[in-house]
Amino acid sequence: MTPDRTDRNVFDGELLYPMGPILAIESSCDETACAILSAEGEVLAEKVISQEAHAAFGGVVPEIAARAHLALLPDLARKTVEASGLALHDLGAVAASTGPGLIGGLIVGANFGKGLAMALGKPFIAVNHIEAHALSARLPGVSKKNISFPFLLLLVSGGHCQCLAVEGVGDYRRLGGTIDDAAGEAFDKVAKMLGLGWPGGPQLEALAKEGNPAAFAFPRPLKGRAGCDFSFSGLKTALARQIEPYGSTALPRSVAADLSASFQQAVADVIEDRVRHAFAMMEPPPTTLVAAGGVAANGVLRTSLTRIAAEHGVPFVAPPLRLCTDNAVMVGWAALEVCREARRLGLPMPDDRAVRPRPRWPLSDMWERFAMESESL
Ligand code: KG4
Ligand code: ZN
């Protein structure tokens, strides 16, 4: 059987799987998170712990993250089940992020999820963390109208910076991505240079409100270039050069504010240009522009993205911040979307107990799960 890659917005089957709510786990970076969603996608409970032990190191320490996931996850899962008002045996499936991400944390989350699924005799769904970000905007209630395929996703976080054509569940085309730092990483490194805390993005944005975005003429890397790749390391170096003359003396607050505002404006301008190119690379054109990841919280960037979407006559949707940053609700929702797509294609309920956690897991591999199942029918 060849899977039907057309009409993917049409689903008229019954929601037969999973047979009950789903418990989802996220542990790919420094957030330990659990959520329970009904089979229809209603969020019944959600809990997230942002690990604080990393702040002292100015970045996520993988070994500390893995140990913290191990210490936090069992109790967090128990409390999430309690908060949902359900009992463990009410669950219809368990899902976890199994990549890409920091392998230690992924192993903890995946093994916990698989163990629980096995003990309950329920299926386990392995979720690609980026796929979960990509589909999060389709969670019921996030936008006024259900977002249909294809849509354009800008994913901008501490670890990722890419544009994706989301053509269907499991069907993603990477239009371009960063060739050096992720956008959030650039914000964090620059914030560190300016003596701000970690993570730096929100603090840099706050300081930028006091500054002049035109005070420093920072470069706009790759602006106008074909495609939609990104680059931020030159911008970071340009800012470092402006700080050099101050040596070990503290940067005056007004200068730090001007540097923050000018840097933020340069990042927003570059992303705006790259997203414009991404629009031109999509055929058929996207129904919606979606932004996800922590940097999507940035107000100046949101203004730019709202403008581009309006120019193209489509809505701009950014899920609320709790769904933009790492969370388990998006993992549960992606698992439900995968189940639903399997059902739409006439495939059995997925069960991924054999899937191993992977630090890298390209989105281009995601269609395989449906294609392989179809061949065996
Ligand atoms: O998605 P996220 O919570 O975690 C991952 O990286 O997966 O994103 C965190 C990143 C950090 O780099 C943080 O500095 C950045 O998002 N960030 C922001 C803002 N809020 C968070 N960057 C710019 N402006 C913000 N308001
Ligand atoms: Zn993420």
Give an account of the 3D structure:
The chain is globular and about 65 Å long. The strands form 2 sheets. It has a 5-stranded mixed beta sheet, sandwiched between helices. It has a 5-stranded mixed beta sheet with strand order 8-7-6-9-10, sandwiched between helices. Helices cover 39% and strands 16% of the residues. β4, α2 and β5 form a beta-alpha-beta unit. The protein has helices at residues 62-84, 103-120, 129-135, 183-193, 200-208, 233-243, 253-280, 299-311, 321-324, 329-344, 368-375, and strands spanning 22-26, 31-37, 43-50, 93-99, 124-128, 151-156, 161-168, 171-177, 289-292, 316-317. The model has no long low-confidence stretch (mean pLDDT 93). With 377 residues, the protein is an alpha/beta fold. Bound molecules: 5'-O-[(R)-(carboxyoxy)(hydroxy)phosphoryl]adenosine and zinc ion. Residues 129, 133, 157, 326 line the site of zinc ion.
